[in-house]
Amino acid sequence: MYTDKQKSWHKRRYQDRLKKRLCPQCGNVRDNEWITCSICREKCRKYSRGLTHEQRNASTNRYRKQCRENNICYRCGSSLRTDSHINCEKCREVRRINRMDADARRMLIKVNNVE
Fold it and tell me: In whole angstroms, what is the distance from residue 84 CA to residue 71 CA?
């Protein structure tokens, strides 16, 4: 585990490299449209391909479990009114709209814009 001093140094180094338009992981020149350089992206891609589905989702599941325990929405971080949902009302509404097919979404937008 890192000490607080080491954590703050790593955060500063990461931010400094971003400001200098360098790859925050290795310090090499990064590609224009990416945060990391092509070498680091390829390393990450190779590592990720070797992981199982369960391993990829492990950190996400830990985060969601912590959010459930603290009674907060895992998408936006706002507090939940009830324990029965994992998302707040606003995030649930956004997801509901996004799941609609294109025609229903257009109709909903037209109705809301008229009123």
Answer: 10
What are the residues facing 79 on neighbouring strands? 72
* pLDDT tens for each residue of 41-91: 999 888 888 878 777 777 778 888 888 888 888 888 888 877 677 788 888
Question: What is the mean pLDDT of the segment spanning 12-26?
Answer: 93
Coil/strand/helix, residue 29: strand
3-class secondary structure, 101? coil
Which residues on neighbouring strands pair with residue 22, listed in sequence order? 29
CA distance 46 to 60: 20
The pTM of this model reads: 0.46
